[in-house]
From TrEMBL:
GO terms for biological process: peptidoglycan catabolic process. Residues 37-233 form the Transglycosylase SLT domain. The keyword Transmembrane helix does not apply. Keywords: Signal. This is Murein transglycosylase. GO terms for molecular function: peptidoglycan lytic transglycosylase activity. Coiled coil: none annotated.
C-alpha cells in the first residue's frame, strides 16, 4: 500500500469512527429514574421524525413516566417458582374449569378459528385465562406511557423501542389512541397483545372483543409455526409456538398442561 493510499484509508477509518460516535451521541439516552424521561422524549421524537407522523409524536410528548410499569417490570418473581407453585399461584384448576365452560359456550367461534388457523380451543383459552382471567383484568395503565417508559428504561430499551415505534404506528392508524389503557407493559385486549404483535398478527378487530382476540391469538401461534393436528406438550411440534408466546419456561409448561386439560386431551 502506498503512503497516499494508507493516509486515505486512515482518514476514512477516522471519519467512520467520528460518524459512529456522533450517531451514538445523538441517540436518545436511556435512564433508570423519572428524572431524564422528558429530555429522552424530546431526543426520541427528533430521531423518529420521518418514521412516524407528527400527530403520533405529539401523542408521545403527552406521555408521562409510568411508575406502575417500572414496579411491575421489576416484580415478576412468579416466573422463578416451580411449575407446581406457579400453577397454584395462577389458579390453574380454576382456569381449566372455567375454560371448559368457555369452550362449550363459544363452540362455534372456536370451531371456526380451528378451521381457519389450525389451532384448537385449549391453548387459546388457557392463554385467555392466564393473561386476563377471561377478560376480567385487562389493566388500567396508559398504554403509550407504559411503552414509552420501558423504551426509555435501560433494562430492555432496544426491545421496547421497537414496541414504541409499533405503538406510534398504531396511533397513526387509529388502533391505539393517546388514552388507550391496558396492562403495565403496554399489552392490550383479552389476551394482552403488545403493539408489535398487533401489527404482525392482529386480524383487524378490536382486541377487547373476544372473537378478534381469539382469532389474533390463533394467528400469532400459526405465525410461530403451529402445525394443525399436532400436539403441544413439551417435546411435541407445537410446543415451540407456545414458547413464542412467553419466554418463561413455567408459563409455557402451564399453558400446555391447561390447554390439554381444557381440550380433554388429558
Amino acid at each position: 500500500m502506498t503512503d497516499v493510499k494508507r493516509r486515505i484509508a486512515i482518514t476514512a477509518a477516522a471519519l467512520a469512527a467520528l460518524v459512529s460516535v456522533a450517531g451514538q451521541a445523538e441517540a436518545a439516552q436511556c435512564g433508570n429514574t423519572a428524572s431524564g424521561f422528558e429530555n429522552w422524549k424530546r431526543e426520541f421524537a427528533a430521531e423518529a421524525q420521518g418514521r412516524v407522523s407528527a400527530s403520533s409524536l405529539q401523542a408521545l410528548m403527552g406521555t408521562s413516566y409510568s411508575a406502575p410499569t417500572i414496579a411491575a417490570d421489576r416484580g415478576q418473581h412468579s416466573f422463578k417458582l416451580s411449575l407446581e407453585q406457579f400453577m397454584a399461584k395462577r389458579g390453574a384448576s380454576t382456569i381449566v374449569s372455567q375454560g371448559r365452560r368457555m369452550k362449550a359456550a363459544n363452540a362455534a367461534l372456536f370451531a371456526s378459528i380451528q378451521q381457519r388457523y389450525g389451532v384448537p380451543a385449549g391453548p387459546l383459552i388457557a392463554i385467555w385465562g392466564m393473561e386476563t382471567g377471561f377478560g376480567k383484568v385487562r389493566g388500567n395503565v396508559n398504554t403509550l406511557s407504559a411503552v414509552a417508559t420501558l423504551a426509555y428504561d435501560c433494562r430492555r430499551s432496544a426491545y421496547f423501542t421497537d414496541q414504541l415505534y409499533a405503538a406510534l404506528k398504531l396511533v397513526d392508524t387509529g388502533v391505539l389512541t393517546p388514552s388507550t389503557r391496558g396492562a403495565a407493559h403496554g399489552e392490550v385486549g383479552h389476551t394482552q397483545f403488545l403493539p408489535k404483535n398487533i401489527l404482525l398478527y392482529g386480524t383487524g378487530g378490536d382486541l377487547n372483543n373476544v372473537s378478534a382476540a381469539m382469532a389474533s391469538t390463533a394467528n400469532f401461534l400459526k405465525g410461530h409455526g403451529w402445525q394443525p393436528g399436532q400436539g403441544y406438550a413439551p417435546g411435541q411440534p407445537n410446543f415451540a409456538a407456545l414458547q413464542g408466546w412467553n419466554a418463561a419456561s413455567v408459563y409455557q409448561q402451564a399453558l400446555s398442561i391447561m390447554g390439554r386439560q381444557i381440550d380433554g386431551a388429558e
